[in-house]
Amino acid sequence: TALLILAGGNLAAWAYTNPSTGVYQTNGSASDVQAAINAASNGHKIIVPAGSFSWSGGISISKGIWLAGAGKTTSGSIITSGKVTITKNANAPVRVSGLRFTGSDVHMSIGGSASARAFVIQNNYFYSNGSDFIDMGANGGLFDHNDFYMPLSGGGAPDVMSIHPGETWSQATT
């Protein structure tokens, strides 16, 4: 089903479509992606199309969904500002893939209980010119085939991830 609301010639925030059970196609805006996440259930997939998007308010994920971009290349899904905030889910893993983060702020923040289901962050590109790439507040996940880039001309060298005090990566999770 498609939900398209026009008000005064402007496209409203909720424009995502659900072409098949459990798959939500968005227009890439932060409001549309967040609306699709809110409508989705554990195990569903949210698709971000190719293009350049500013998520200045960011998006939040607290369900076991898959946020899937069109690829981490310069012709894929490019997020120019804002971040993805993940709260690990007890019932299903959170997966983020195929996004290219190019803003100057922290791109991702991961929190939640270490005993919750693992997260999967794969096939993304993270660019930073001084901020940390990922703020880790919970462990128990997988980073796979991601690219991290910081130009040498930037300010101080950022940490790839900021691990909060008291958090470790000593416990394996599945």
General description of the model:
The protein has 174 residues and is mainly beta. Helix content is 6%, strand content 36%. Strand 3 and strand 4 form a beta hairpin. The longest helix has 10 residues, at 30-39. Residues 1-13 and 165-174 have low confidence and may be disordered.
Summarize this entry quickly:
This protein has one helix at residues 30-39, and strands at 6-7, 10-11, 17-20, 23-25, 45-47, 51-54, 59-61, 66-68, 77-81, 84-87, 95-97, 99-101, 108-111, 119-122, 125-127, 134-136, 141-144, 147-149, 161-163. With 174 residues, it is mainly β.
Outline the fold blueprint.
Layout: E1 6-7, E2 10-11, E3 17-20, E4 23-25, H1 30-39, E5 45-47, E6 51-54, E7 59-61, E8 66-68, E9 77-81, E10 84-87, E11 95-97, E12 99-101, E13 108-111, E14 119-122, E15 125-127, E16 134-136, E17 141-144, E18 147-149, E19 161-163
Parallel strand pairs: 4-5, 5-8, 6-9, 7-10, 8-11, 9-12, 10-13, 11-14, 12-15, 13-16, 14-17, 15-18, 16-19
Antiparallel strand pairs: 1-2, 3-4
Key descriptive features of the protein:
7-stranded mixed beta sheet, mainly beta, single chain, disordered N terminus, 1 helix, 174 residues, 5-stranded parallel beta sheet, disordered C terminus
